Amino acid sequence: MKPQDITAGKSSLWIFGYGSLVWKPDFKFKRSEVGYIQGYKRRFWHGDNFHRGNDQLATTWGVAFEVTGHQVEESLRYLNLRETVCGGYSTKLVDFFADGQPPVQALLYIATSDNPLYLGPASPEEIGTQIAVCRGKTGHNLEYLLRLAEFMRCSCPHVEDSHLFSIEAAALTVVSHLLAVQ
User: Which of the residues 9, 58, 62, 82 has an alpha carbon 20 to 30 A from that of 160?
Assistant: First the structure.
């Protein structure tokens, strides 16, 4: 499904971010809300060296951004380049839940396993090591990981994202070893 097909005839759109969009949306928006979607898990299985799963019982926390008017077209143009052309993502409309509010439909960009950059499951230590030593054109992968973990701790302190936090711990262990040998 193309994002433009979703927005036909709409004057506003919610876009859900669960990775770098939570701390660096890079597009203008009317407002944002912290909340979650159901049926998806955040996983570090996509080996995208330019930037940085589906489970019916899973919940993924992040931020939804409402874009209106000309922001809809501008944000989709930016995200299509960032996520679908360069990063190997598909799109889907999902229910987004924010505390105390009825759910709204939000556009979700989903990393796909058929992308050549898809690495698949690995241990937190393997993923953490790769993140600790790699960087892409948009920055160091460690920054992405640490900012995402900080967002979760500050904005969703009641949520335990064991996958994220175990990779963070593994990456920080690698960094401390690298610093010790210098």
Answer: 82
